Amino acid sequence: MAKGEQIVCSAEEYFQERGPTVKFSHLHYFVQETRFCRKIDPEKCILKDVSGIMRPGMNAIMGATGSGKTSLLDVLAGRKDPAGLRIGSVLVDGRAVTSELRLSSAYVVQDDILMGTLTVKENLLFSANLRLNPKLYTTTDKHSRVAAIIQDLGLADCANTKIGTEFLRGVSGGERKRCSIGMELITSPSLLFLDEPTTGLDSNTANCIINLLHKLSRRGKTVIFSIHQPRYSIFKQFDHLTLMHKGEVVYAGAADYALDYFTNLGYQIDAFNNPADFFMDITNGEIIISHYLFFCTTFCSFMLLCLSTAECQNELATKYQESELCQKVLEELNHMNQRTDGEVKSHDEAAKYATSFLYQMRVVCNRTMLNILRNPQTSYAQLALNIFFAILVGLIYYQIPMTLPEALQNRYCMSGAFFFLIINMVFGNLSAVELFIKERAIFIHENSSGYYRTSVYFLSKIFADLLPNRIIPIIVFSAIAYYMMGLKPAFEAFVCFALTMCLVSLAGVSLAFLVSASVSSFAMANILIALPFVFMMVFGGYLVNLNAMLSWLSWLKWISIFRYGLDATFINELKGQLFYNNGTILPGEIFLKAQGIDYSMWGFWQNQVALLGIITVCMFLAYVQLRRINRWK
Ligand SMILES: Nc1ncnc2c1ncn2[C@@H]1O[C@H](COP(=O)(O)OP(=O)(O)OP(=O)(O)O)[C@@H](O)[C@H]1O
């Protein structure tokens, strides 16, 4: 397809490709439960011998909570850990589910995962920019496609409204859901999975969403979704119904035949009852086969009834498996399995992204910067905190004299200015632990849907966080504190001081990033970050004489951010300075020697190199941790 050929005015033309047929046979899915980090035996089987065929149209998966709807949907969409699928296979148009297939289909998660500070249109454009190949689609094409989707989903009125965050009221729940669906429709997928698209919406909005899906299905798409308790106007739009109970299929077939099927089994629907509610009542055991009613008149029969009701629920799955309906499906699946036996074992190649690394970098960095600009509280707070502490330190240690003993006491004694500065640099960056935790869900969703590479997300966050939240406030902090305290007047000395402060701060930040990428809760992150900071402070060599106590732990000073920061600041300040004591002049080097600090040129720069080393190692490990995040549902 040549570039530019995609400029289309109507959404209709985007959705012409016919959807695939999804066939799955004898799925047995197991999960390993854990308690106190220990595996509980035996494994839990959450899908038991589930088979079916879903063709282009509206395919609903219904069932009570915990019946296995989402699990089945995830297995079909290739989003569930394949290790749990012990028996059975899923074929999409006769092909096994690979990463490529996963990326070409659409998956709308239950909790809408959208960037709250961006408008509906900006979110859709973000998806278009990253998921449409720029070699095939011009910027105008992408804008046309976004406009068509906005029109098609009825989002025109709120196109320029922000989605909303916890601090900002944005679009309504229904508009949010439609925007989530739009994000997936950008690639005009022929196969669409939706996890409970109507949950949490009022009945009218739910109706609108289902109407929209119905419209898509009539254009040939295969729409597969899980749902519970649909009202009748929604239910009647289903083409195919899979009814689940405790991980087993109790009915799979045409939605409009389901009522006849259960009536044939002996269940009677009340007049005016909604068939969807009726089916749910049957699976929950609240409706019983009519001939059992006879026993209900006596207590004895009541006991019998209870037994038969419990049995009845398990029997539903057995009855379905024995039914002609199921036999037909199995026959068709057997036939297909024989034909595709060789093809199924095709290996899963790494998915290809629609856009290059640099292009992704540009788009993702733009969004991250926009997000920071529209949600600047953290950046403002960081800057304000640094200015406050700089003025505080400046006032406490205002114009430190060059006469002893105050000159040295105030500079480097345990309670001195430098220690205070370094502590502020390290602990002032605790907010960095939220970086990867806050957006974990959005990263997992977008990364596994093929928006961008992990490295792109990592680098964009690092650049976007480091500049506004770390480097700029620290330079401001250094300038205020340095000149208020009256430290060495040479400008180079100030530059070296500011550089040391930046490196100390970045070392603390990189450790926070590592923790942030490794855990998913703030509470855990706070515990994990406080521990190494306190250790580094204690074993930095200034609070405790390591040779006198715990000498076997003295090696910890080599990984102490505090030690490198303090050594560098002392050398920078004391080297070449003269101090006065009762008429005698003492060079700063004497004090450095007394402390055992190497004040040569390398002696100073080795601290910066060590800090850079800590930053590099922690950043690298943070990236590795981000890659290791479990993407399976
Ligand atoms: N990773 C897991 N570990 C333990 N149990 C699990 C896991 N995944 C699913 N289950 C269990 O499998 C069963 C089916 O879960 P599933 O989420 O598929 O149900 P559902 O029908 O979609 O429910 P709901 O409507 O509440 O979302 C539940 O009992 C659930 O607790």
Give structural notes.
The protein is an alpha/beta fold. Helices cover 52% and strands 12% of the residues. It has helices at residues 69-77, 99-104, 120-131, 139-152, 173-185, 203-218, 232-235, 258-264, 275-283, 299-322, 324-340, 357-374, 377-396, 406-412, 417-427, 435-438, 440-448, 454-485, 491-518, 522-538, 561-574, 588-594, 601-628, and strands spanning 22-31, 34-35, 38-39, 44-54, 57-63, 85-92, 95-96, 106-108, 191-195, 222-227, 240-245, 248-254, 578-581, 584-587. The longest helix is centred in the last third of the chain and has 32 residues, at 454-485. The radius of gyration is 32 Å and the shape is elongated. The chain starts with 21 loop residues before the first strand and ends in a 5-residue tail after the last helix. The model is unreliable at 1-15, 291-313 and 342-348 (pLDDT under 50). Bound molecules: adenosine-5'-triphosphate (ATP). The site of adenosine-5'-triphosphate has 14 residues, from β4 and α1.
- Looking at CATH, the homologous superfamily of the largest domain is P-loop containing nucleotide triphosphate hydrolases
Name the strands of the widest sheet in spatial order.
8-9-10-5-11-12
Strand percent estimate: 5-15%
**Unreliable residue stretches:** 1-15, 291-313, 342-348
Specify the biggest β-sheet.
Answer: 6 strands, mixed
Unique bound compounds: adenosine-5'-triphosphate
- How much is the radius of gyration in Å? 32 Å
Instruction: Give the number of domains.
Output: 2
Number of helices: 23
Give helix % range.
40-55%
Question: What would the principal axes of the Cα set say about the shape?
Answer: elongated
Strand tally: 14
Structural class: alpha/beta
Mean pLDDT: 83
CATH topology of the largest domain: Rossmann fold
Supply the CATH class of the largest domain: Alpha Beta
First-to-last CA distance? 35 Å
Question: What would CATH call the architecture of the largest domain?
Answer: 3-Layer(aba) Sandwich
